[in-house]
Amino acid sequence: MKPEYDFSKGERGKFYRKNIKINLPIYLEPDIQEFVENIASKKGMDVETVVNEMIKNNIQLAKVIS
User: Fold this and answer.
1) Domains identified in the chain, total number
2) 10 vs 3, 6, 15, 17, CA distance in Å?
3) Does residue 4 form part of some domain?
């Protein structure tokens, strides 16, 4: 790294976008990914949908328990 950087020509907020929604990548452990892929192929669904359904089910279960 340089000892000093020149920000004199920088623009504040140049890349800021209000209310932007960012989809973050989620990395599954290999055995979990294989399990979910098997379920997805049996149901004819994509992996994203299966994972979202599993998480929604866990949220509902957590609400019932607490």
Assistant:
1) 1
2) 18, 8, 11, 17
3) no
Structural domain that includes position 33: 14-66
Phi and psi (nearest 5°) for 30? -55, -40
Distance from CA of residue 52 to its chain's centroid?
10
Q: What number of residues does the chain have?
A: 66
The separation between CA 11 and the C-alpha centre of its own chain, rounded to angstroms, equals 30
Q: Tens digit of pLDDT for each residue in 17-62?
A: 999 998 889 999 999 999 999 999 999 999 999 999 999 999 999 9
Assess if residue 9 is contained within a domain. Answer: no
Q: How far, in Å, CA of 19 to CA of 1, rounded?
A: 33
Q: Is 48 left (phi over 0), alpha (psi -120 to 50) or beta?
A: alpha
